[in-house]
Q: What sequence folds into this?
């Protein structure tokens, strides 16, 4: 069987590197590489390990893979799923899987995530072409600016925006924004530019970094994470939740954001009180807090907390302090004390410890 040209992927890598020196735009290299790869599979060619590795080694794919923690086993299963979906000699296998997927997509989750790119290829490619419009980039910034104070409402054309043809998520960090096309396509159906506005917000908010002592690393991770995701979530998550029943499987986020968020706040309060009583000796690590927030990067309970702050009238105060993770907790407590749903609050002992940490670390901050 034929193999995809390795020279093609070398060209993609060179174009990706060269694009970094240009004005801000969408980098479609990894996405176009995906379409090219699948076209050959449609003709019956297999996806060789070498070709697959070259594809995965494209810079945006590498960034995304590392962020998501995909191991070799997962990536190999993804390669095989792509072959099942696109190679005509696997049509009978795919047919059986699709019957199961139509009842419950989670039964063949990887196959489903690849299959949607195949059956919606025309719509996705049409959507891809629309993204090059300057108006679309302006809409992204408009969404980001809606949740930034005036002094942070500055465009940054050094930010690289990459699109991928695998998976269904979006990430941002270190001057890079990455979105998978399936996720972006569906998010834009309900709110144009909101998903990328959310991701761009992570960059434009210019979060501070702190010189933190070991015993405080865990709780500081939590404070920064809920502020970072909670405020950005105000851009796109209310619309997502309102359209929960119209979004494709896996893209509605109510179950991702809400369940157990209140119990997480309650547990964090207990952890902080334990730190105060032990003078910091009884502490939780960053990994402990990542486990507690269910590896959501802070979406849970960040959205829950920010939503309570906003609906109780403290939106402007949150905007004014959008870089201050300590203020986020104080505003949450004020709002929670007013809220008719009686969400959990941080106790006086917990607030005293957070104030001590603010005094200790706020002046060590740096961008």
A:
């Amino acid at each position: 069987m034929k193999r995809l040209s390795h020279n093609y992927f070398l060209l993609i890598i060179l174009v990706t590197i060269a694009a970094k020196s240009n004005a801000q735009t969408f980098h479609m290299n990894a996405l176009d590489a995906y379409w090219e790869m699948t076209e050959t599979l449609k003709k019956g060619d297999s996806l060789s390990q070498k070709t697959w590795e070259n594809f995965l080694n494209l810079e945006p794919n590498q960034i995304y893979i590392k962020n998501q923690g995909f191991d070799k086993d997962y990536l190999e299963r993804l390669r095989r799923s792509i072959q099942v979906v696109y190679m005509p000699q696997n049509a009978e296998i795919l047919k059986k899987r699709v019957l199961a997927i139509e009842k419950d997509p989670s039964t063949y989750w990887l196959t489903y995530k690849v299959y949607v790119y195949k059956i919606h290829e025309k719509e996705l490619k049409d959507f891809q072409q629309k993204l090059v419009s300057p108006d679309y980039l302006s809409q992204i910034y408009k969404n980001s600016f809606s949740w930034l104070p005036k002094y942070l409402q500055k465009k940054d054309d050094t930010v690289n925006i990459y699109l991928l043809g695998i998976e269904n998520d979006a990430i941002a960090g270190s001057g890079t924004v990455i979105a998978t096309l399936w996720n972006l396509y569906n998010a834009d159906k309900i709110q144009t530019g909101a998903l990328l506005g959310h991701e761009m917000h992570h960059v434009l908010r210019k979060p501070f970094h702190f010189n933190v002592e070991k015993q405080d690393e865990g709780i500081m991770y939590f404070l920064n994470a809920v502020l970072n995701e909670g405020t950005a979530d105000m851009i796109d998550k209310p619309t997502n939740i309102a359209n929960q029943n119209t979004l494709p499987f896996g893209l509605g986020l109510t179950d991702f954001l809400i369940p157990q968020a209140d119990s997480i706040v309650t547990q964090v309060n207990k952890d902080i009180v334990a730190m105060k009583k032990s003078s910091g000796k009884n502490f939780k690590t960053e990994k402990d807090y990542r486990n507690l927030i269910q590896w959501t990067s802070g979406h849970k309970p960040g959205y829950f907390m920010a939503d309570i702050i906003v609906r109780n009238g403290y939106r402007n105060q949150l905007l004014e302090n959008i870089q201050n993770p300590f203020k986020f907790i104080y505003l949450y407590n004020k709002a929670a004390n007013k809220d008719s749903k009686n969400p959990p609050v941080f106790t006086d002992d917990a607030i005293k410890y957070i104030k001590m940490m603010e005094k200790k670390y706020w002046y060590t901050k740096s961008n």
